[in-house]
Amino acid sequence: MKKKQLVMIGNGMAGVRVIEEILKMDREQYKITIFGNEPHPNYNRIQLSNVLQGNTTFEETIINDLQWYESNEIQLFTGEEVTQINTDEQYVISDIGRQVSYDELILATGSLPFILPIPGADKKGVIGFRDIKDCVEMIQTSKKYKKAAVIGGGLLGLEAAKGLIHLGMKVDVVHLMEHLMERQLDAVASNMLKAELETQGMNFLMEKATVELIGTDRVEGIRFKDGTEAKADLIVMAAGIKPNVKLASESGIYVNRGIVVNDFMETNVPHVYAVGECAEHREVVYGLVAPLYEQGKVLAKTLCGQKENGYKGSITGTQLKVSDIDLFSAGEIYDDPTSKSIVVHNEYEGIYKKVLIRNDRIVGIVLYGDTKDSNRLYRMLTEKQDVSESTTISFLQSGEAVESNDIASMPNDEVVCGCNGISKETIVQAIKEEGVSTVEQVGGCTNAGRSCGRCKPVIQEIIAYTLGDEFTHAAEKKTVCGCTSLSRDEVVAEIQVKGLTTIKEVMNVLEWKTDEGCSKCRPALNYFLGMVHPAYVDDRDSRLVNEKMHANIQKDGTYSVIPRMYGGVTTAKDLRKLADVAEKYDVQLLKITGGQRIGLYGLEKDQLPAVWEELGMPSGYAYGKTLRTVKTCVGAQFCRFGTQDSMSLGIELEKRFERLDTPHKVKMGVSACPRNCAEAGIKDVGIVGLDGGWEIYVAGNGGTDLRAGDLLCKVKTEEEIYEITGAFLQYYREAALYLERTSTWIERVGLDHVKDVLANEKKRKELNERLNATLARYEEPWARAIEEPAIREAYYRKRELVK
Amino acid sequence: MMISNGVRVNLCTYDQLPVKIGQVFVVDHEEIAVFRLTNGDIRAIENKSPHPKGGRLADGLVSGDFVYCPIHDWIISLVDGKVQAPDRGHVKTYQVEVNGDQVFLVV
């Protein structure tokens, strides 16, 4: 059967959702063509403010990438606008003259920012806040100009203002009304919000009507009705949106405020449908994603011949997040003589909750600062539950205990992810049937939590509730991975007690659930065995890629080569060699790394052995769970402040402890004086020189677990430093979880505990003995690869079979 | 040499394929990762991760019939090329024939 032609004008969230739903129901019926006037695939407009605030990238907002269109055989024309619809002969024409016939046509043209019709609104520097283009303009403007004004104190305006502040601009928010977000918040909540946003740097010009934008070519300021003015190099109009209906109305399709549709999303013209922000249903135009997705489902059914109940309109609660403040509102906002309200106002913690009640039924909800109750209250509102039985104000205070019951008592069909219309039942089903156990995984199977992300905490609770004991069990007892029910400590103890010496043996004896483990347990077991047995023969193929290859894999599958440069000290000869090799192999990048050395980036794996051989330098282990670098300052050899020889000490430490396998990477630093140019305070082991001695800091971290190191002790001699450092490293090796940095480890076991262990001289000696026995087993890996053809063959060869 | 559909290409001898270490063969400009599993089977897949951000698969950790994508830790079946839940996707698989001690790829 020949496929019918389905054409969609608009490539936004609501429209593409229709297509997704159609593909789910029937892949064979339509050949699909989409026109989008933006030069992008479908992206998540809701996240644009996060892009401005630097929390996410444009790339990450893409919902359907180009490959999705391709693999579903959808013809996509981006950056192309449809300018004409011929509804008699059923074809559309685009701005470049492309003519496409349709059997069915969807209008999903979205909306446009409402630009105030005032003099000067057409000047340069006046924009809306709607798409990626607007964001780009804001970002670029912020580099040249300093002062912005946002017109509109609603959600959109506040998000734009927050983004502009993040971009370093000074921002005035101009609002016509007395209160911000007056359609969602009452006066109290609105004032709390305003006060909070003021502390974040927003300046508000309230009850100001804008009458003119002043400036020459580019906008320079705003003039208000009361005669006052404000300077601004950028104006963001966020006073509202209007449905984009121009094309529809020019094409003879019936338009009121939006394109008018019936319950099946059909317009008055046969074979033409409208969905999303451009559509008007029962005199309502929706702007939130949840009802638009609901419309999308209905339209998809209509187009697949399943016209059943149709769309009945949506009542929506608005769950919002403005500048990290949680807000929720639904129903009526303001009290009137026929309503009574229950109010909790906790000024101290910045929480405000109001429930409006009329005739024993909830008719309105406003929550500020804490929206955990929103689902429950909203359900009571929509189901018109009688609340006269609920004594006092208990239903405004869901304590911890009530909260877990919440999930139990939540009806199966209750929608958890409003944006995507995903019910509790669907999520529970995914957890049970697909075996998923994290919020991200649930999103992967169901789409829940993938739009605005506000429902993620509830999804987390549903996971905990559904997995029950299994989950709490897993939370209490951290198993090595899903392949075993044993914890790290249990596995290590079994290895010691039963004398297990290989990974295979461990898996057999300890009844592993998988034959050959996974990417979590194999590297961990390999580490544990090497930690317990100093003479252990490493299982290279159980290491993750970087350690297996002795090079860092890059995102394109090429590798980097970073040789040792002990203490960050080099020679002219070595530099020349690095330069020669870099030139010869035409490396993509030559960079000073964060660890005071030089990296060659972008080498193919079959080039690695030759590069190593020509460099003739030892591996810097920039890829390993091992000692990375010892950063040093110039120290007493040259520096006029230096009290100690930091470079020599650093080099010696690096030579003593290099190659040692540790639970996670270890970085060290040595500074010659408390000015601490080597940043020893954020290293796993940091040494600071004093007049006549040294301080040893441990468990500092400059990365993910940013943490200042703790002073472990003060010592007089370098020998003591080696002894203490060795004992600390070995104790960390023996006691920490695999992949646990010293910073998180010490937080877990306590500094005092580690101090106690290291204070015992006998223990220190034993730790150092075990450490030295282990250090004796290592060989230089690059030299080994050069010497042994079998290693080169197995790991670094690429065979070309066709020239 | 031109390679067309259904042609068998001699890769190497069976013993030249080490267990659990992916080998890269470039056939007609296309990289193919070939794995010898612990059970002795030889499996061949396209050396390209189906993750949206790409990457290569040959250097991944091999366990049973699966390879773990070295960059994104996706689990990919070496038998049918299917990405395991919760991730989704598919890599191209190739038919492999072992004839005596020689290994052939059918392209």
UniProtKB/TrEMBL annotation, chain A:
UniProt xrefs under SUPFAM superfamilies: FAD/NAD(P)-binding domain, Nitrite and sulphite reductase 4Fe-4S domain-like, Nitrite/Sulfite reductase N-terminal domain-like
Domain NADH-rubredoxin oxidoreductase C-terminal: 318-384
CC cofactor: [2Fe-2S] cluster; siroheme; [4Fe-4S] cluster; FAD
Keywords recorded for this protein, A-Z: 2Fe-2S, 4Fe-4S, FAD, Flavoprotein, Heme, Iron, Iron-sulfur, Metal-binding, Nitrate assimilation, Oxidoreductase
Pathway in which this enzyme or protein is active: Nitrogen metabolism; nitrate reduction (assimilation)
GO terms, biological process: nitrate assimilation
Domain Nitrite/sulphite reductase 4Fe-4S: 624-763
CDD domains (UniProt xref): NirB_Fer2_BFD-like_1, NirB_Fer2_BFD-like_2
Keyword Cell membrane: no
Cofactor, how bound (note): Binds 1 siroheme per subunit.
Domain BFD-like [2Fe-2S]-binding: start-end pairs: 415-464, 480-529
Domain Nitrite/Sulfite reductase ferredoxin-like: 554-615
Gene Ontology MF terms in the entry: 2 iron, 2 sulfur cluster binding; 4 iron, 4 sulfur cluster binding; flavin adenine dinucleotide binding; heme binding; metal ion binding; NADP binding; nitrite reductase activity
Record-listed [4Fe-4S] cluster binding positions: C633, C639, C673, C677
Signal peptide feature range: none
Domain of life: Bacteria
Family note: Belongs to the nitrite and sulfite reductase 4Fe-4S domain family.
NCBIfam families xrefs: nitri_red_nirB
Protein name (Swiss-Prot/TrEMBL): Nitrite reductase
Source organism per UniProt: Halalkalibacter wakoensis JCM 9140
TrEMBL record, chain B:
Residue ranges annotated for the Rieske domain, each copy included: 9-105
Iron-sulfur is among the record's keywords: yes
SUPFAM superfamilies: ISP domain (SSF50022)
This protein's UniProt keywords: 2Fe-2S, Iron, Iron-sulfur, Metal-binding, Nitrate assimilation, Oxidoreductase
Annotated GO MF terms: 2 iron, 2 sulfur cluster binding; metal ion binding; monooxygenase activity; nitrite reductase [NAD(P)H] activity; oxidoreductase activity, acting on paired donors, with incorporation or reduction of molecular oxygen
Name of one Pfam family that matches: Rieske_2
InterPro entries to which the protein is assigned, alphabetical: Rieske-like_NirD, Rieske_2Fe-2S, Rieske_2Fe-2S_sf
Keyword Lipoprotein in record: no
Gene3D superfamilies documented for this protein: Rieske [2Fe-2S] iron-sulphur domain
GO biological process, one term: nitrate assimilation
NCBIfam families (alphabetical): nirD_assim_sml
Full protein name: Nitrite reductase
Species for this entry: Halalkalibacter wakoensis JCM 9140
